[in-house]
Amino acid sequence: MINLSNLTIIIVTYKTDRQILENCLKSIDRNIKVKIIENSNTIDEQDEILLSKYKELTISYTGKNLGYGGGNNYGFGITSTDFALVANPDIVFDNNFFINIEKYLNHDLDFSIIGTSYKKDKVFMPYGFFNESSENIDKKIYSNNLGSIYSNLKKVDWVTGCAMLINLKKFKKKQIFDENFFLYFEEYDLCKQIEIKRENVFSSADLLVHHLGFKGSFGANPELKLDAEKLREWHWMWSTFYFYKKNYSYIFAVRKTLGKLIRAFFKMLFYKITFNNFLKNKYKCRCYGLLNAIIGRSSWYRVDSKFQ
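^ thats the sequence. predicted structure below, dont judge the formating
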């Protein structure tokens, strides 16, 4: 039996469909500690059933929606193990995932984050580089010199946050994510801070997950599709600008996003005169999210009480 006693899995939920959540839990080794951080004060009637099924599971209720970063920081604060696996609720772990992860829980491996790979081809890459020219020989040589036991690791600049292993010993505080982000770019920003400290982020080819995508919260409900789309678009643009401003400069952020603002504005007008309410609202929220970031407002936007 594999020994994973020094690992805790943290799953941040927001009124997530309990069947989707249980599909995730079923794919987890039953001996691993799992902490569900419910970003609300809503106790689902199925929670007691889940707790009775999974002996290593606990569920904590934050009382309000702290966002992805805030929810995970809450989870880090009540985690006592050296390693935490941050996971979205809408993923399913591959059968060999927890056999493969054990070798990375080795104190001899110098890493801050190890990202996972998608079980099937996806549009989005699970890793990347802040400067594409930095995907160079130095990083490939570094990865190849780790030894055969770590042959599936690639040194990268960033990994996606749907599932990633975090070495908590590398962080002095439990507030690891920047909570100014409410949604999107939190993991990229964290990886950027790790790059600045000259620490290591890897992507693993043998830690495989199947990611449903956009199924981890209320957005899976078809009746709330427009609300979910508005929230995503507003925060995608706000977080884009904030990430560039924080890690580069205000002028750099304006240059990177001005074209997006202009395109969103004209698309909003076009869909307004063509009476396409869904797309009009989508691009309206893109405009407003970016404008709020430009004038220095916080990531305040929520849609009524559905998000509190």
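The chain has a mean pLDDT of 90.
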